[in-house]
Amino acid sequence: MSQEIDRRRVFFALWPDDALRDRLARLSRELRANGRLVPVAHLHLTLAFAGVVPAPVVTRIATDANRLARPAIRLTLDRLGHFRRPRIAWVGPSDAPAELDALAQSLSGICRDAGVAMDDRPFRPHVTLRRFVTRMASGPIEPIAWVAPEMVLIESGRGGHPGPYRVLQRWRLA
Ligand code: ATP
Ligand code: MG
């Protein structure tokens, strides 16, 4: 029992400010879709999902992230979409800036270097608006400009089980 490892479910994300959060919450309510709204406090754009890792790995990836170049990231959320298999409705950029992709790749690299098995699927930047979606009208929307003020490391839930998010660390992007 004394050898039980402290495990945490963590991911890096872009974190909207309150104004954008409100805007996204409104958008999620107005969607022509079924499903369940993501809580306003959870709205984010995942950059790199480390998953369930031992606590020392969390410390290491947070420390390594301090060394990254963190340029300002300007993106335009202009498209609603539906990922059918995970059954989510999302909003995202139809054309993502190179800086966003570079940041996501760097963070994945940091996680890999710390021994985390990362997903190899291509990075598809999106903000999840609803879950359990089986019907949805996808397509373009009036563009929402997002100059991301910060990147965060989030712990989801406790002990490796998903749940309410907690910001473990924040980094300004400028
Ligand atoms: P819940 O799972 O309780 O419904 P959640 O999906 O918000 O809530 P997590 O499962 O901890 O919480 O996921 C946190 C974030 O990481 C979400 O944006 C989720 O889409 C993303 N994510 C989860 N699993 C993966 C994965 N295997 N690869 C990439 N991103 C993932
Ligand atoms: Mg999940």
Automatic annotation (TrEMBL):
Active site: 44, 126
GO molecular function: 2',3'-cyclic-nucleotide 3'-phosphodiesterase activity; ligase activity; RNA 2',3'-cyclic 3'-phosphodiesterase activity
Similarity remark: Belongs to the 2H phosphoesterase superfamily. ThpR family.
Protein name from the UniProt record: RNA 2',3'-cyclic phosphodiesterase
Alphabetical list of InterPro entries matching this protein: Cyclic_Pdiesterase, RNA_CPDase
Catalytic activity: a 3'-end 2',3'-cyclophospho-ribonucleotide-RNA + H2O = a 3'-end 2'-phospho-ribonucleotide-RNA + H(+)
Motif, HXTX 2: chain positions: 126-129
Keyword RNA-binding found: no
HAMAP family (alphabetical): RNA_CPDase
